[in-house]
Structure formats: structure tokens, C-alpha cells
């Protein structure tokens, strides 16, 4: 580690996203002077390797954030609510990967390719959007900028790792059970805390997070509200249906959009995607080239393909958007935010 | 078997759908005097049990249809094109489960709950629609009738059994490979005949059938064109994105619709679904009750849930529609057509 650089803390260091955060900090060679790894009492004592050195994970307390410059949080909403104010009080900037503060007016909700400048408004806490929101807005922002955007309808194909390690274990255990002709005993998905659970192996569950009174799930409302906030379009029409699938990692999205401008071609959108930051165009259907979640795993980009004009709406287009939900959807975007803070001189 | 009743033939008797056709004929106690089971030379000689008797599968020839009243076809489009005219010439009515004749003006495309009366126009061949189309129109027809229908946008979550037994075997083999840490060697999906194949286990493939010049797949265009034909709405706005998933059986669909009438409530659509033929309403999200493909397997009905009004469009609604693609999507609908032919005195 450098003697210059920043004191960085990761809260939730032993979780699926936390581990990716640590790996991403290492891969991106983020300027770190000191790395503090924090978790609940239960996981404290674990040892994590970072740039060849072993770091012991400590139980998080308010004082853990003493001297920390940047704290990456990914340990659940209630933990964020408890510790973020404590960290900010001690001078840290918190990049929070939970939904705890995302819709707070005072908290910038940032995807660096889309609204990096919003970071200037931060008051200590910056929110990392929901995984399924991030990959969608990375693709939609260039379209909004160039052609205007009027409507977004998305159906998601989401991987279990978004629900944590227990969900991954459950997927593989159930898959094994079914292949062996045994019964399955669902305990985690769709929502760990709820009373009823459904089989995820070789199945599709149209529920991610709990239901709201309007019939949408919290996950769906996150996609709807966060998209409007990040794109600075409070009256954008957005609807979402979120579905959990037997895939370990990699979220896919079937997205229908309507642009404002007339005369836009499929080719125009393809060329735009090709040149957009953080986007990789994979759109050669005649060669069976389109984004696949299994191919996106371990990559930081958002993959876009199957772009085609609607057959009825001249301003309507369909897209298939895929990304690694643990990286661009979570850990990578958080580290990118930290990088932007450094670049903008905000830390 | 009865001495009264009909001489029924099943072409493609050893395939995934053919076997379900035979099982459905038995379960529904269809009035059969004689059952002729036909296949390619390769599968001829197989023995199939029907109502406690063993029937030997024969190689199909034009003369196999001599004396047959109703022939259920499910052996691929080219086989249908070859044998359907021969069967009709010999006096049989063909219920064809392939896409060979579906869009022919002379051929009724029938889902009995929706457009049974179209059977009166038949000239020997009746087409069974695509699996993903059938389950959608069963749910949409009552809505069209009651409230009018203006627009349909669907993203599908389709099971591998729609691509036949090889695809099922491939899903389970790849799943086993991945659980054992071994490599996979895709050979079947997304389209058996094409050069390139993609992993289906723990993945999502946004291609079903080959691509057309407009960027849509044939499967997507089937959903679009067949829906218009079955609902007798040539100018209905329909778009589809079809995705293959690691699920053995049970297609799911995330469907957005716009009705014509104002003032329709979510509750109105729910009550309508509850009373519609062939539909089971499963819509108690607060109790985590919604359609799941794993629960639909082996059942003849179409399951509808997650019904909710769009947050921006007063006439817009979202639905989640699930059915067994081998039953209502294929075998059961074909046998239902045969039953309708009997009921209407058309055979």
C-alpha cells in the first residue's frame, strides 16, 4: 500500500458484493493508504487477501470510521442507516450500495457515466443505485441525450447473486437435488425474511423484494424511481417487471423505449451504443451475437444488443441489456464513484 | 378402445409434444376407435402404451392416413408440409402443431377458448398456434371482449422443452457439468440447425428460432402475427422479445397491454380472469401467490397473476402469464381442437 492515497473502509467485506469491492479496488489500483475491512460480529475475524497482504475483518463500530476518507457500504439497509451518519460525522464520505438513502433529496444517486456531476452536491453520503437500474441507465443516457426519451418498459431476467451468497448456495443445492431426483426445500428466495419461499432451480419467480400496495415490488419501484432520479427526468414514463431466474450472476433486461425524435434508425442507436462510455455493443444477430449473462460475468461493461425498431411505433425501440450485477451493478460502480470523487477533488 | 368413435393418428408420436398428445387423448377419454402412431423411420418400432394396450409406432407414409378421421401432427414443419396434403386427400382432418400452415388464409388458427367458431371455415387443415401465443391469447381474449385492446408488449421466459427432447437433455447435461466444475459443450440451443450454439444452463439466451431481416426472430414474429390472426385484429399493436431459459417446462410471459376503455381497474381485470375459460387467477402477491412455471407443469390451464395498473398510462396494465408449453401450448390445445371438431359436428 502507498503511504500517500486514501484510507478506505469496506463495510460488508465478507458479502458477495463486498468481496467484489475489495477485488475491484485491487484490480483498479485505487490509491489506498490504508484498507479497513468491516463486518458484523458474526463474520469478524475472517482473513482477506489484498495485494498480497492479509487483512483481518473487524466488527464495525462507529469508531471504525475514525480517519477513514472513503467508506464503501454493502451490508444491508439497516446497517447503512446505523453507520453512515457515524462515518460522515467522523469525516468519511460514504458510498452506500443499499437502498437506505437512494431517494433522499440530499443524497446524489450516481452512475459515473450518466450523472457524475451530481457528486458535487454530496453532503457526505452518495448512493449507489440498484443493480438493475445501473445497467439500464448506462445504455439509456446516451439515447436520452441524443434523441430524447419518453417511455421505458422493462422486464428483467435477474440472477440470484443479487440476493446474496445464501441465494447462490440455494440455487446450486436445489439444482443438484432436482438432477438427483430429490425434493427441494426452498428457504431463501424470493425474499429471505418472508414466510413463504419458492423453488428457484429450473423455475422463474416474478418477485424480487417485497410487494407494495400498488402491486409493484420494491425492486420494481426502485428501477422506476431511481431511473427518473439519475436521468433527472421526474416525469419520464417508466414501468418494470422484475423476475428472479436460475442464473448465478448476470442480469438481463428486455427493454422497450420510445424516443422523442422522429426518424431515428436502429442503426443510429447501434452506432450510439458503440461509442458510449461503459457500453459494449454486441449486436450481430445473424451471427448469433447478442449479450448473454454467462458472457458478462467478471466484466465491468454493460452489453447491449438485439436493438430493433418496433413494428408499430416509429419512435419505439427494443433493446437487450446485460451486465454483471455484482460489478457494474454494485462493486464496480461503487469503486467508480470513489474514483470520480478523487478525480473531481471531492475527497 | 371403442368400436364407435374416431380413427385418430398422431404424427411425431415419439417426440416431446407427441407423447403429451397421446397422454392427453387418454386422459380426456377422447372417443377413439383406432389410434395410429406415426414417426420417422428412425423412431419407428417404438412401443407406446395407450389405455393399457401396446401400440407400435409406424413409419409415416402417405397411405398411413387411409381411413384416418383426425390426424394430430407434431413432427416439424417440413414433415407437415409433406404429409398434411396427403392426409387431407385421404379424408383426414389435420390438426397441425407446426408453423407450416399457420398464416395461410385458408387455414384456421385456433385456440378453442378464443376462436372456436373459426373451425367452421376449415378446408382440411387446422393449425395449432405457437405455444407462447396460445397462453397469451387465452388471457387477452376476455380482456379484448370486455374492455377492448389496443397494444400488447410481451417479453417471454421460455422453457427448453419447446425446442424438443434434445434441448431438455442438453439443459440437464450442462447443469450437471457446471455443478461438477466441468466445461459445457453446447450443441442444440438456441437453434439446432445453426452453426453456433450457446450455453443454456444458468444462462439466458435472447434467441428462439432464427432471425429475420427486421431484427425480430421467427418466434417473435409468430407471436406478433398469430396473435393478430387469432384475435381477428389485424391492426393490433403487438411486439415480442422471446428468451430461452434454463427451465425444463413452463413458459412465462411478462405482458404489458393497453385497453381501449377508460376507468378499468386492476380489480376488474382480476375478476374477469377469474371467470374466463381456461384461465386460473393466481394473484395474491401479499401472500406470495403468483404463477410459477414449476407449478404449471402437468396442468392444462393458463395461470395469470401480478395484474396491476401501469403507473403512467391509465389504460395500461401489466400481467404475468404462465402455462405448460407442452400442454396448453401444444398437445392439450390440439386435442381440444379435436374435441371442438367433434362437438361442432365437423368431423
Automatic annotation (TrEMBL), chains A, B:
Q: In which pathway does it act?
A: Amino-acid biosynthesis; L-threonine biosynthesis; L-threonine from L-aspartate: step 2/5; Amino-acid biosynthesis; L-lysine biosynthesis via DAP pathway; (S)-tetrahydrodipicolinate from L-aspartate: step 2/4; Amino-acid biosynthesis; L-methionine biosynthesis via de novo pathway; L-homoserine from L-aspartate: step 2/3
Which UniProt keyword terms apply here?
Amino-acid biosynthesis, Diaminopimelate biosynthesis, Lysine biosynthesis, Methionine biosynthesis, NADP, Oxidoreductase, Threonine biosynthesis
Q: Which InterPro entries match?
A: Asp-semialdehyde_DH_CS, Asp_semialdehyde_DH, Asp_semialdehyde_DH_beta, NAD(P)-bd_dom_sf, Semialdehyde_DH_NAD-bd, Semialdhyde_DH_dimer_dom
Which residues participate directly in catalysis? 131, 251
Top-rank lineage group of the source organism: Bacteria
Q: What is its EC number?
A: 1.2.1.11
Q: Would the keyword Oxidoreductase be found if you checked this record's keyword annotation?
A: yes
UniProt xrefs under PROSITE patterns: ASD
Q: How does it assemble?
A: Homodimer.
What protein name is recorded for this chain?
Aspartate-semialdehyde dehydrogenase
- The gene it comes from is asd
